[in-house]
Amino acid sequence: MRYLMTTKASDTAPDEKLYAEMAAFVEELTAAGILLATGGLEPGGIRVTSSGEEITVTDGPFTEAKEAVAGFALVEVRSREEAIELTRRFRRIVGDGESVIQQVFGP
């Protein structure tokens, strides 16, 4: 089962301890074949909306940018519970904030 785990930006600036703990966590998950992809996302982005035949492209940042996803990890695990446990471990490392877990369907 694949899950996309996303996190919103935090007001807390990362320090050397956080970088070291995250590096170890990422290395562990990569070595185990669990972590398929990870990365940070630009804060602004581009919004593309459609209404009938009209397509509108708007450059960010947007007023709700504080609600935007700041980073992601794509993992392959055996169960929903395993995805939740990995996200709990991640939150313990990075501290206060919010993450969302969504199952990815398809090949």
Automatic annotation (TrEMBL):
Parts forming coiled coils: none
Record domain YCII-related: where: 1-90
Gene3D superfamilies named among the record's database cross-references: Dimeric alpha+beta barrel
One Pfam family, short name: YCII
Family the entry assigns: Belongs to the YciI family.
Protein name in the entry: YCII-related domain-containing protein
Natural source organism: Streptosporangium fragile
Organism phylogeny: Bacteria, Bacillati, Actinomycetota, Actinomycetes, Streptosporangiales
